[in-house]
Records
---
Amino acid sequence: MTKVLIIAEAGVNHNGDFEKAKELIKVAADAGADIVKFQTFKAEKLVSSSAKKAEYQKTNFSESDDSQFNMLKKLELPFEWHQDLIDYAKKLGVQFASTGFDEESIDFLEDLGQTFFKIPSGEITNLPYLEHIASKKKPTILSTGMADLQEITEAIEVLERAGLTKENITVLHCNTEYPTPMEDVNLNAMIQIMQVLNVKIGYSDHTLGIEVPIAATALGATVIEKHFTLDRKLPGPDHSASLEPDELKAMVQAIRNIEKAISGNGKKSPSQSESKNKIVARKSILLNKNLIAGSIITKEDLVIKRPGNGISPMKINEVIGKKLKNDMPVESILSWEDLI
């Protein structure tokens, strides 16, 4: 089995603070994530001055100002921070990445040597954006929050026409509500995406807790993306639906455990670790009383008890009617050598 790629999504949870961005990288590295990912954009290219906040942004960002532009302007990751953050991540043993939200940001990330691109859910219907990403011909992860199967199909077709092969596309099932209600997760849709579109699948999670990413791993996700924060009480649009450091670490460990649990050959047979317990847990046929040599064994002469190093109880009907070779005391474990 290929190792699940775990993306710790820092997103905009740095709150425009360079030191917080570094702290987030350290948390991701300490948790054992493969990638710590931020968001690269210029608010001027992302939203118009008239764009309003989403409901979850209003709820999670307690400001009276309803401007999405003003909110995002405070959450930019300045271009000049990137190289220092890349170097810091490398030092800690975790890969830095970022989602570019416009063509300039994508080109900037490419120049920095980013090895893959992430298409956020909101850009799945952005034709020029999709074509620009595809032109880079690098592995691409496509999030699908708010999309139906037809929109996902069309986005993949755009990527393929623009030069990206399907083998380089991973599609993440996603629900773009922060936090996502459990009843809206619809995790089986991830399986539909894989079966109908014949692509690698993953899951980008916005639920509270770590159960759903773990379940997605068990269902075959090859990529798991999960938001995390230094503290859920911090102000900002995504903090309240993000994992805190200890939770991120627990999620990573659980996913690694699930990887091991589903990595077998799929054939039911005793494992090496459990084989030694057969004798302890199974039973054998024992004598229920003292018997002398030549006794013809009846059902009443027998009892079934542990350990399992004698004749299997499955063979009891073959034992009944046999003669005993030698005198044997009560609770003797029978073997075929004891019988005539």
Note: Residues 5-261 form a domain with the TIM Barrel fold (CATH 3.20.20.70).
---
Amino acid sequence: MNHTQVLPSGTRIESYEIQKVLGIGGFGITYQAYDHVLNQTVAIKEYFPTDVAYRKSHCNTVSQQNKQDQEFYQYGLQRFLDEARTLAKFRNDNIVRISHYIQANATAYLIMDFEAGISLSQKLKHDKILPEDAIYHIMTPLLQGLYDVHQQNILHRDIKPSNILLRADHTPVLIDFGSARATASNQNTALTAVITPGYAPFEQYNGDNQGAWTDIYGLGATIYHCMTGVAPPFATLRISASYQKRADPTTASFKKLGTQYSKSLIQLIEWMIHSEPKKRPQTTTEVLNFIQKETSSSQQTNLLFKPNKLILNNSPPSINLQAQSINIENMTVSPDRLSINLAQAIGPIAKILIKKAQAQTSDPMQLVQSLAKHISSEQQRQQFIKQSGGSFPPKEAENISIFHEKNKESHSVTAITQDGLSHAINCLSYYLGPIAKILVNKIAQTVDSQEALITQLADELDNDEHRKDFIKRMKA
């Protein structure tokens, strides 16, 4: 792209000042910018389909060459805004957060959280391949994030290493949704031809039969790269081999991986990147269930979650991303394993509770027991304890059951849930704007109930009427 097509440093869009270009894609330009109202760095994505849009030098306004280009551009712009409104509703830590959008300069801008870190592609350039535990630390949260995306009937359609950001704490974030790309498919061949060879399944080449299985292929292809050091062969080559009754080009690579990775992981990735859409997992739930099943025994868990250091390329020496596992009765269980087990009983809030519990104890048995106390169902609590290899002393188990029975009767203490967090962010945003998300997530890590969360959040408001109104909204 010509340098005259990007907005220069210092350009103002309302309260946001462009600082530099972060990335350029077929449908948009992503910038780092500074918000002069909230005094924080943000990322801004500008809708700019390179095939039909241009701007003159020293001009911010986006134009098109002819009437046909204008029609395509306007259709894509509307879809871009429609998806922005939907994506802004997401409250998943592993999906890039959109807090605001602006229409100006005959285009639109998405205001997103700025996530510091490096891309998975940068890490792979340095490390070439990743160990199995690191792969699961990346794949499992992304599957959970994609579940939320697919529930809104949205497809990412461009999952690849460069669109996965690794934070300093090694948690992954899926970025660059390319909204117009996913919704303008029936309007213009040029708008559907944005394909990343190797990571895109064959159905993306002709625009037919796309669904959750399409994103599953992209994620599987990304993990294939993490295992082999290269992207899979182009989907067109794989389909051609199938038609000619030749061996799939990936077969030889998978056979070589048997000495480095578990059989279950190899089987999973083969399934995820099957060249035929109907023979892949149809939903992320199927993949997560497979992971749950294959890692349920101690033998598999030991194999899949070994302690390993993840050192990010180009990171300061002080950043040591340790995937710390814990040993429970000779079984290795990682925080991700515990998170999956606990989330089945209490939902996404499991991650927060695990972090809090780890800060309070380093004893594996006490950690499992502490987490189990948050599960009100006796059956689910026992299942979690069994999966995690722990147990309760008889007296302690009796006390927990009594506590939950009393809590059930009184309803005096309500556990914090992901829905509760989302509701709090929405209510607080009415008074504080985007900063509400930061406050809610920060305070949620210091309290143990929804009531305490509401009280502390209300204290952040400096107006008595606002505090009362906020509490009323939260309890409605």
Note: Confidence is low (pLDDT under 50) at residues 179-193, 297-332, 406-412.
